[in-house]
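Methods — Computational structure assignment.
A single polypeptide chain was analysed. Its primary sequence is given first, followed by the predicted tertiary structure written as structure tokens.
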Amino acid sequence: MPVASSEDIDAGVAAAAAAFAGWAHTADAERQALCNKVADIIEANSEELALLLTLEQGKPLGGLGSRFELGGAVAWTRATAALSLPVEVLQDTPEGRVELHRKPIGVVASITPWNWPVMIACWHMIPAIRAGNTVVIKPSSLTPLSTIRMVELMNEVLPPGVVNVVTGEGRVGGVLSAHPGVGKVVFTGSTPVGKKVMTAAAGTLKRLTLELGGNDAGIVLPDADPVQIAEGLFWGAFINNGQTCAALKRLYVHDSIYDAVCDALVAYAEKVPMGDGRLESSVLGPLQNEKQFDLVRELVDDARAHGGRVLLGGAPQERSGYFYPITLIADVDNGTRIVDEEQFGPVLPIIRYSDVDEVIARANASQFGLGGSVWSSDIEKAKRYARQLECGSVWINKHGALQPNAPFGGVKQSGIGIEFGVEGLKEFTTIQTVLA
């Protein structure tokens, strides 16, 4: 990848700033049509992008891998293109008329991670340009190529300067976050880096959307059917090899069905093949990078040393690449690193409980609050418990099922701001109140 200099970053911001006036005043219907053309060109080139994504990220082409990610990117782009923010009339009386107008902010800096690099880039860029902003995107230095190519394609249909890309390591994101020509930063990544972005942005009081780390808890109530929920539990935890912010990271299971749930998960997980992402037979691939591989190995070793019982996996595969097998660990609890920290890999700790009210408190005893789930045959009871979880999104009998019309964002140290739907689109605007 190119490594951007400070001059390159300035040039990217300047190009976006020069394009902003014209783009912001483009008719709303035309911006909508151009966003749909972006979806068309991504879709038309999705197989090329999927292969590039597999080569640099590791996820398989098939299943819930690269083609799935490209499909999600197209779907989110079309859904966002369909949104609008009409003028709201707050008052219309003989005393006067009050209107609420939403205006684009200016240049938006997008800083994206390595786990879903194409789809998250669309989550950032499309609502930004739909609302009339221009963008400078900085992809992860671990997965820059698919984003560079996608931006190249987008520039075949968008006016010059509306979307720009600069690449390099963390320094580039820091420069963008502090840049006086940037009006908003949208960042997806770890909480520690999110705090650095927030600090850098404070100098010019930039608007922020931060989607940060998670340690999502799932709670299985005693009336759940272990076999029926096993598949949903598995993919809630292991989609993208566990490398997902809103994946199921710790599973609390009632004592009465604990062993049955463990057995059902092992039986399902044993049948999921892991291998080279270019092979159509592979359902999961390797971890993306050495740092994450080492962390997963360290957390599993620590859990074993503190009494954790490895039900499946538990040691790196003896093969080239960062392949760590699907790992299920029983008999661990809060206070163990594998429960308290975000593993971001193919490992799920399974924790026993006996009192539902007490386990809600244990689930909430975290600095994170991105997602959570409750599993039960009684939907209304599950909803009552779900509302007690301290997280931005909560699912019933599924986990991590994001959709473009459902607002998504974290509480506590899992982030600031909202993505998706009309509420997410509003995040890329400022309010102007007109009183007449």
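Note: Residues 141 and 169 are 5 Å apart (CA to CA).
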